[in-house]
Amino acid sequence: MPKKMNLDDLTREIAAIITNFETVQDFVLDGDIETAERLYKLSLGHARKFGYRFKTVNIEKTMGAIFDPNC
Asked: Is residue 55 a contact partner of residue 1, using CB atoms and an 8 Å limit?
């Protein structure tokens, strides 16, 4: 588990969590409730783990290699 997170790491994690919950919504709208429930539990676990890491790690207010504002 990383001891530090930068803004790119933070953005990537939040985007992944949002995408997971949007996928759950898609399964619900398609009527596949069993898959939606299973994915919801996994997504909720991911969000909880991220919340714990967010609370405990040092957030560096820098951009990493992923985002280059000069591109």
From this structure: no
Q: Is the per-residue pLDDT at 2 higher than 60?
A: no
Residue 46 lies in a domain: yes
8 Å CB contact between 29 and 3: no
Residue span of the structural domain in which 28 resides: 4-60
CA distance 32 to 58: 39
- 19 falls within a domain: yes
User: Is 26 within a domain?
Assistant: yes
Distance in angstroms (rounded) separating the CA atoms of residues 47 and 22: 13
pLDDT in tens, 14-27: 999 999 999 999 99
> Would strands 58-60 and 4-6 be described as parallel, antiparallel, or unpaired?
parallel
Number of domains in the chain: 1
